[in-house]
From TrEMBL:
Keywords: Membrane, Oxidoreductase, Transmembrane, Transmembrane helix. The chain crosses the membrane at residues 6-24, 257-275. This is Uncharacterized protein. It comes from the Eukaryota. One of its GO terms (molecular function) is oxidoreductase activity. InterPro entries: NAD(P)-bd_dom_sf, SDR_fam. It comes from Patiria miniata (Bat star). It holds the Pfam family adh_short. PANTHER family: PHOSPHATIDYLINOSITOL-GLYCAN BIOSYNTHESIS CLASS F PROTEIN, PHOSPHATIDYLINOSITOL-GLYCAN BIOSYNTHESIS CLASS F PROTEIN-RELATED.
Length: 336
């Protein structure tokens, strides 16, 4: 019995030491956005701003006086979020527009509405995204859902709003990526599948681009290529890793497989201990949106409120150019 008690005590001590090391390396060292910038008279669009870090970001920017446009698929959740943000900040300039990134038609309709109704656009935050889908789910336009929503939708949206961003300069495009892009070891296959012998479009126009990892790599490549193409303008383009965050998305991921749902509630407290919270997860986005120094760092990738080097593949300019060409073809954008 004494041996078991000693053994248990030793295990507990080891666990506490490991957690202390993890806390110091990944949580306690998190930097916060130091900017005191006010955004009165500025307009911001945040995709997916009705929950998670998108909502937290919208709340902070609204407190700074910005006109905040929540671009969301679920209008009821977006209206609820807008109401809460207005109440907490006293800023009535929080509006909601429908945007479904899984539909290029919806993206075009949203962009047209913004162009018609807004005089300026100072910050575009490409925040929305999905991390898991059921089976071989496709977007309305035949793209694998993860890549279609996380990359093609934002690619089209940004390009359609570029003239407004240029007109409003200095302005910024901030694209949320993830360090998970580092897990990709083989080259990105951008081959498009056209039609079968009967002239029918095959399932999934870009069948190799179906993982979350690929979509997050594409986010960085897109932001970098956009920066190069806008080098002579007042539009800054950056991408970032917000951190590994404990958000509702984890519940959505686990609930996709019903038998795993109970594990979420069992492991939830452990995840809360190991991951950063939503407020910490917004800080790098806020830094990229507000800090004056970022305007001189267009094309860079940020982690924990500072410049970080992404994977070698994410820095491949030829791959970025090829992805841009493919994205123009996929979304119907005429390449300039």
């Amino acid at each position: 019995m004494e041996f078991l008690m000693s053994y248990s005590a030793a295990v507990c001590i080891v666990i506490l030491i490991l957690y202390a090391l993890h806390y110091g390396k990944n949580i306690a060292c998190r930097r916060g956005c130091k900017s005191n910038a006010k955004l009165t008279g500025k307009t911001v669009i945040i995709t997916g701003g009705n929950s998670g870090i998108g909502k937290r970001t919208a709340l902070d920017l609204a407190r700074r006086g910005a006109r905040v446009i929540l671009a969301c698929r679920n209008l009821q959740k977006a209206e609820d979020a807008a109401k809460e943000i207005k109440t907490r900040t006293g800023n009535s300039e929080v509006v909601v527009h429908h945007l479904d990134l899984a539909s290029l038609q919806s993206v075009r309709e949203f962009a047209n509405k913004i162009i018609e109704s807004e005089d300026r656009l100072d910050i575009l935050i490409n925040n929305a995204g999905i991390a898991v889908v059921s089976g071989e789910a496709l977007t309305e336009d035949g793209f694998p859902s993860l890549f279609g929503v996380n990359h093609f939708g934002h690619f089209l949206l940004t390009n359609l709003l570029l003239d407004l961003l240029k007109k409003s300069g200095p302005s910024r495009v901030i694209t949320i990526s993830s360090n998970i892009h580092r897990c990709i070891l083989s080259p990105m296959d951008l081959t498009r599948v056209e039609s079968d012998d009967n002239g029918n479009i095959r399932r999934g126009l870009y069948p190799r681009l179906k993982t979350y990892h690929h979509s997050k790599l594409a986010n960085i490549l897109f932001a970098g290529e956009l920066a190069r193409r806008l080098a002579s303008t007042d539009v800054t383009s950056v991408s970032l890793h917000p951190g590994v965050i404990f958000t509702p998305i984890w519940k959505n991921v686990w609930s996709r497989i019903w038998i795993l749902t109970p594990l979420y509630y069992i492991l939830g407290p452990l995840m809360w201990l190991l991951l950063i919270d939503e407020e910490a997860g917004t800080q790098t986005t806020l830094h990229c949106a507000l800090d004056e120094s970022v305007s001189h760092l267009s094309g860079r990738y940020f982690t924990n409120c500072e410049v970080s080097e992404p994977s070698a593949m994410a820095q491949d300019e030829e791959l970025a150019k090829r992805l841009w060409e493919v994205s123009c073809l996929a979304t119907g954008i005429k390449e300039k």
